Amino acid sequence: xxxxxxKTGSILLLCLILAAPQxxxxxxxxxxxxxxxxxxxxxxxxxxxxxxxxxxTSDQDLITVDVKVTVNFPNRERAQRYLDYINVxxxxxxxxxKARTVIDEKFSFSGWGGSSRRFSIDYTIKMxxxxxFKLVNRYGNSEIEQVDGQVNIDIxxxxxxxxxxxxxxxxxxxxxxxxxxxxxxxxxxxxxxxMRYVGELSVDECQALIL
Length: 211
Prior knowledge:
14 strands; single chain; 14-stranded mixed sheet; mainly beta
């Protein structure tokens, strides 16, 4: 009798689980874009959090910065509220073009995780290889093609992949700092490299490496 009651209870519990409404994630997005015409003395300065930064370079003189913000959350109203808390500010200071991710202090960073509760702020950048490039990225991976100008890169809690850095023994030197992630660099001229708590470092070719 007890065994039969246990079986009946198990079947009832399973039916209740199967009958429960499934959590459906609401995905909302918004986009930001900006273009600049660049010369050899310009610098592009990117400051981001919680997303990828992909940099494609060419010999063209046009900079394009496209940002896509994505929020997935079970409640659509709350998803919209979180989306509204995220902004991207574009500005210019002399020869420097800037794009900066701004997250309102009302944004709650607790309770995120899984496929139904996540958000990302992803940058896709196209720029001339000859300009200078500065990047700060937190909690996201970064991929960069060839850069001939000076680079200053600061990565935390994300991986860094660089194709080529051609700048040689010219002050200021190319400078890269990576913490709590991995770094892979194809080739570089002179490079000042600071690594902290890095899982893996790979530099295929480098003229001079300062650690």
